[in-house]
Specification:
158 residues, alpha+beta, three-stranded antiparallel sheet, 3 helices
């Protein structure tokens, strides 16, 4: 299965955790034949986006291993997978996932900066549908109307 799919087995969306201290913790993560503590969080960098970061604790030494960071995506949320109880990451990439479905499912676990590209894509899609078949159906007019509506949404977003 592709890495970029809309998770269907979401038990619970976890609140946004942006650093090691606020990370979500799994106490029984596999570490070879042993088990260890693993932390999961979403790192945000302006101009790049979000990336999933994990860090495990070596059960033999008790020391934290080096953090492992994924590639940047437009938005990211953590959730608990139904059935397994595992902590997973849900990635939003505008060209792979239905924006409205992703926002409705993961909104409470998203950082405000992660909501912006999703909301813009929802607004732009609505504008495209509204203008189809009219003389205003141009790239310039679509952008102009979408940015105007997005600006209005930004004023009300927290």
């Amino acid at each position: 299965m592709s890495k970029y799919y809309m998770p269907e087995n979401v038990e619970k969306v976890l609140p946004y955790a942006g650093d090691f201290e606020s990370a979500h913790i799994a106490l029984d993560y596999p570490y070879g034949r042993l088990q260890c503590e693993m932390r999961f969080w979403c790192e945000y960098k302006k101009g790049k986006g979000f990336r999933a970061v994990t860090r495990s604790k070596n059960p033999k030494t008790g020391e934290w291993n080096k953090p492992h960071a994924d590639t940047y995506v437009e938005a990211l949320a953590c959730y608990i997978e139904a059935g397994t109880g595992h902590i997973k990451f849900a990635e939003y990439r505008y060209d792979f996932i239905d924006a409205e479905l992703f926002l409705n499912t993961f909104e409470k676990g998203l950082h405000i900066e992660g909501k912006k590209p999703i909301k813009y894509n929802i607004i732009r899609s609505a504008v495209v549908e509204k203008l189809k078949g009219t003389p205003d159906y141009t790239l310039f007019k679509i952008r102009e109307m979408a940015w105007a509506e997005f600006g209005e949404w930004l004023k009300t977003a927290s």
